[in-house]
Structure formats: structure tokens, C-alpha cells
Amino acid sequence: MNTLAYPARTGLRVLFLKLKKLPGRKFGISCQQSSLELSEPKLSGYSLLELLTSLAIMGIISGMSLPIFNIVKAARTVSVTNQLVRTLHLARSEAIKTGKRVTLCQSRSGIECDRGEQWERGWILFHDPNKNVQVDPGESIVLVGAALQSGYTVTWRPSGRRRDYVSFQPQGSANKSGTFSVCSVEGPDTARTVVLYRTGRVRTSTRKPGNKPADCPG
Q1: Half-sphere exposure for 101 (CA within 13 Å, toward CB)
Q2: How confident is the model at residue 180 (pLDDT cuts 50, 70, 90)?
């Protein structure tokens, strides 16, 4: 019995040594180590180059948005200016068409003239044959200009003293020349002017005659 057991133990020893040298065993150990390494959390972040690139892109986008914003602000003031210009054109054409004096005055109520200078509160255009700058019975109102949206001011600086009205004669001429200034709280850089000549003609600009700045509130 001992004779048979010795070769068996010897054979098992030899088999164990051979299995120990097999590459599969080493592979098994490396796989186990790799799985342990993969299970560990990894730290992530941004490189200096990535941060500089992001800052550069943000700067380009900001630089592009600023001119667009200025264009939008200027477009709003131009829209208000065009509304006033259309009213002046209508006043002149109405005087020529009817052969009667018409008056454009500052009005908050929309039914009578105010002795104020805040044209942004609204205005009315009406037939004024007796030249008293008041809407009398029998005198028709041609146009009622609603108050402008908040943030805008319209000032009238005529050649005469009164700044609350302007009239047009049947031949189309204005009773006074002067300049309307359309200003916004967004800044004087968006201001526009409407220059009225004694002939009744108008033109728009960003400056007053003589290259002077618009009369905007401080």
C-alpha cells in the first residue's frame, strides 16, 4: 500500500509544479489586479489650454453681442422719430390739400392743446383757421398721437418762443423753423433730431444744425 501511495504523491507534486508555471495563472492574477485598478475612482478636470480656449470663445461672443445690442437701441429711437416725421408730413399735406391752416400741438388728453413741452405725452393735429392754437367747435381733429412708451422724450426748440405747437400754412410752409429732439434713457448716443424748415420740409439727423448735439435731458 505504501509503495502505491508514494508514486501518487510524487505525481501530484509534479502536476502542482507544472500548473504553477502555466501562463494562465499569471493571467488570472493580472486580471484580478486590473479589475481592482479599474474599480478605483479617477479624477477629471480641465487643462490650462481648455480653459484659455473657453475664455477666448466667451470673449468673441460678448464682442459680437455688444454691436447688436446697440443696433437694437438705435432702431427703437428711429421708430419713434419716424412716427414724428410722418405726423409732420401729414400736417403739411393736410394744409395744402384743404387750403387751411393746421396746427400740431402737444396734448395729453387728445382733445385739446396743452401749454407744455412734453411732446412724448402725445399730440394732436387739427384744423386751426382762426390761428388761436385751440380746438374750437367746428374745427376737426385730423390725428391724435398717443403717448410714447416710457423712457423717451421729445423736445421742440423752435425759432419762436412757444414750444408747445407748430402750424402749417395753406401753401405748405411752417410758421416757424426749429428742431425736434428724440431722446432715450438708453443714452445720448441713440438720440435723433428732426429739423423743420420754414418751407415745411423736414429732415432727420443724429445732430442739430451746426453739428450740435441733440437737446436731450441731462
Answers
A1: 15
A2: very high
How far is Cα 174 from Cα 91, in angstroms, rounded to an integer? Answer: 10
Cα 101 to Cα 35, 127, 161, 204: the distances in Å are 97, 6, 20, 24
Whether 25 shows a pLDDT value over 50: the answer reads: no
Helices of type H across the chain: 2-21, 23-39, 48-98
The structural domains of the chain, ordered by start, are: 63-205 (3.55.40.10)
Cα 41–Cα 44–Cα 46 angle in degrees, nearest 5: 175
The whole-number average pLDDT for the span 81-101 is 96
Residues 118, 96: Cα–Cα separation, whole Å: 28
Whether the pLDDT of residue 158 is over 80: the answer is: yes
Strand order in the sheet with 178-184: 152-158, 178-184, 192-196, 202-205
Range scoring the smallest mean pLDDT among 79-88, 96-105, 180-189: 180-189
Separation CA 6–CA 20 (nearest Å): 21
Placement of cell 437701441 in the chain: 73
**61 HSE (CA, 13 A, CB side):** 6
DSSP E strands, 67-177: 102-106, 123-127, 141-145, 152-158, 165-168
Q: Which residues contact 208 (CB under 8 A, 6 or more apart)?
A: 179, 181, 193, 195, 214, 215
C-alpha cell of 27? 493571467
